[in-house]
């Protein structure tokens, strides 16, 4: 808001007429109403019409203010048609000579774009900041939809095929298909694509930035041409003008936060030197370019360094013009003109940069949310489906080895596959049913016994629902590991709760096939889940076998991504 007010002052204030007329005062007040968020509720067609009636009698900057108001209030193509009309009328009111006409028209356009750009970009920055999570939510929804389609086509179809094979008694094919599906469930999902992004801000900000620079370049070039300078002076002057404007655009271009323009240690002094050079032209000084260099100082340097530097540059310019014999009034005008240009370019660059930063922040938030959701889906697929598919493999192998029990095992396979199909549908939506420790304990007893292990288990104790579901997940993964990685003959499941801490200890006498390997994805998933709830998970070799131990506080919980939850009993 402060920058908008300063830019308005730079456009409207005339140092040669420090006491503005009534028309100018009203014009500026109406522009403040159009540009600031809070008083904008007073805006209506009447405020635009009032400005249109006043701008003929108002002073410096009135055409630019009217052009800005048209751009802010009008909608669609009409805004650009009306803005062109304002620029054309401004030219018709300034027909003293070609330079005066062109200067008035280009100033109306560039000043209108600057005021419109600073105002609208500030609005867009606020809107984008307020809606910064919408892109993340849309990205997560799209990732869930993509995952749902992929799981349905791969895992869902495999599980459906397993139920069909079970109905036909084809146990051998079930085992092969379940192994392939289990391998697919354990695979890391592909990296998510770039989050979808459809933001018109860059298409608004960057053209305004370029057009304003071109406008000032044209006005300054016409001024030098009109001065009828000798070719030996005009040619270097035009080259200097092009160099200063190009460097200004380079310094104003959006960049990541905290990053200075490349080679700014060279380009900034070069721009300053080029801008100061016309002060020493042989016939008279030309101070028009000082505002560009001062604007670059405000853009590139920090405030505590830029403000004194800009003051020093403007003071040096005023002294140089005084030594060259420039009248005090003209000296004051050009010094203020340089300050106004510096403020306008600084404001435009600052707000363009802010919008770019908010855009990048939205993309970053969306990327984080997308990756977080991808990890959540992968973790749930591994933890929920891995057990079901391993159980199907065990029961399918038993049906092959013991044909007399195949009907019983095939019925179990059908039941497990149907439950897994429901999990496949629920995982992407994050709406799966909460696991029950009692249910998982019964299932583990059945499947491990089917696999040939003797299982001893403690009765289930009452726990908060979040902790009960967490330990159910641990038990499910532990049973999966016993099925996949060991040849256990004896398995013991101990569960106690004392002093607000639940203790789950699972031991087996099997020798892991991957003894020397680092912990697999399943144990890493469990460790993350348990740690997020404030607990600890340890695995170790013990005399006679292997142990998994979880110590879990029951007084509070956090979800798998670290968000605190309230336990429900």
From TrEMBL:
Keyword terms, alphabetized? Kinase, Membrane, Transferase, Transmembrane, Transmembrane helix, Two-component regulatory system
- Transmembrane region(s): 49-74, 204-225, 231-249, 261-281, 301-323, 332-350
Q: Which domain of life is it from?
A: Bacteria
Q: In its keyword annotation, does this UniProt entry include Signal?
A: no
Molecular function per GO: phosphorelay sensor kinase activity; protein dimerization activity
Matching entries from Gene3D superfamilies are given as: 1.20.5.1930, Histidine kinase-like ATPase, C-terminal domain
Q: Where is the Signal transduction histidine kinase subgroup 3 dimerisation and phosphoacceptor domain?
A: 373-424
GO CC annotation terms, alphabetical: membrane
**Which Pfam family, an example, fits this chain?**
HisKA_3
Output the PANTHER family linked to this UniProt entry. NITRATE/NITRITE SENSOR PROTEIN NARX-RELATED, SENSOR HISTIDINE KINASE DESK
Q: What is this protein called?
A: Signal transduction histidine kinase subgroup 3 dimerisation and phosphoacceptor domain-containing protein
Instruction: Identify the species of origin.
Output: Nonomuraea diastatica
């Amino acid at each position: 808001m402060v920058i908008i007010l300063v830019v308005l002052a730079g456009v409207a204030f005339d140092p040669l007429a420090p006491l503005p007329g009534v028309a100018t005062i009203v014009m500026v007040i109406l522009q403040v109403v159009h540009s600031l968020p809070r008083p904008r509720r007073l805006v209506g067609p009447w405020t635009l019409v009032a400005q249109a009636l006043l701008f003929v009698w108002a002073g410096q900057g009135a055409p630019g203010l009217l052009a800005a108001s048209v751009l802010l209030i009008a909608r669609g193509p009409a805004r650009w048609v009306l803005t062109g009309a304002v620029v054309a009328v401004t030219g018709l009111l300034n027909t003293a000579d070609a330079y005066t006409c062109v200067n008035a028209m280009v100033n109306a356009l560039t000043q209108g774009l600057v005021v419109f750009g600073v105002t609208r970009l500030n609005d867009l920055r606020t809107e984008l900041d307020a809606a910064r999570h919408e892109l993340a939510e849309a990205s997560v929804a799209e990732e869930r939809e993509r995952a749902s389609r992929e799981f349905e086509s791969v895992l869902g179809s495999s599980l459906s095929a397993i139920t069909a094979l079970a109905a036909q008694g084809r146990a051998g094919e079930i085992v092969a298909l379940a192994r392939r599906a289990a391998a697919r469930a354990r695979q890391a999902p592909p990296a998510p694509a770039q989050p979808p992004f459809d933001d018109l801000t860059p298409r608004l900000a960057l053209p305004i930035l370029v057009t304003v620079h071109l406008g000032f370049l044209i006005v300054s070039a016409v001024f030098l041409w009109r001065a009828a300078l000798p070719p030996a002076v005009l040619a270097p002057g035009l080259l200097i003008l092009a160099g200063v404007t190009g460097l200004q655009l380079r310094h104003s271009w959006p960049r990541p936060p905290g990053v200075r323009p490349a080679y700014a240690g060279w380009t900034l002094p070069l721009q300053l030197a080029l801008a100061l050079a016309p002060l020493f032209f042989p016939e008279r000084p030309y101070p028009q370019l000082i505002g560009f260099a001062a604007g670059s100082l405000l853009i590139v340097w920090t405030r505590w360094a830029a403000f004194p530097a800009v003051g020093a540059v403007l003071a040096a310019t005023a002294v140089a013009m005084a030594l060259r014999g420039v009248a005090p009034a003209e000296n004051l005008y050009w010094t203020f003109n340089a300050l106004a240009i510096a403020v306008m370019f600084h404001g435009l660059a600052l707000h363009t940069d802010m919008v770019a930063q908010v855009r990048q922040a939205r993309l970053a938030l969306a990327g984080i949310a997308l990756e977080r959701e991808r990890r959540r889906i992968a973790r749930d697929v591994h933890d929920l489906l891995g057990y079901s598919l391993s159980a199907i493999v065990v029961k399918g192998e038993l049906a092959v080895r013991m044909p007399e029990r195949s009907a019983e095992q095939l019925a179990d396979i059908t039941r497990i596959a149907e439950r897994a199909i429901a999990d496949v549908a629920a995982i992407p939506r994050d709406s799966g049913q909460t696991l029950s420790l009692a249910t998982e304990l019964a299932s583990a007893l059945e499947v491990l016994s089917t696999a040939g292990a003797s299982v001893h288990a403690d009765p289930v104790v009452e726990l908060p629902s979040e902790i009960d579901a967490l330990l159910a997940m641990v038990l499910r993964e532990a049973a999966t590991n016993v099925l996949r990685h060991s040849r256990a003959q004896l398995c013991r499941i101990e569960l106690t709760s004392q002093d607000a801490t639940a203790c789950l200890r699972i031991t087996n006498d099997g020798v892991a096939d991957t003894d020397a390997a680092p912990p697999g994805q399943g144990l890493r998933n469990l460790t993350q889940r348990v740690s997020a709830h404030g607990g600890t998970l340890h695995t170790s070799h013990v005399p006679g076998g292997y142990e998994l131990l979880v110590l879990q506080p029951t007084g509070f919980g956090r979800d798998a991504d670290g968000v605190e939850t309230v336990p429900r009993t």
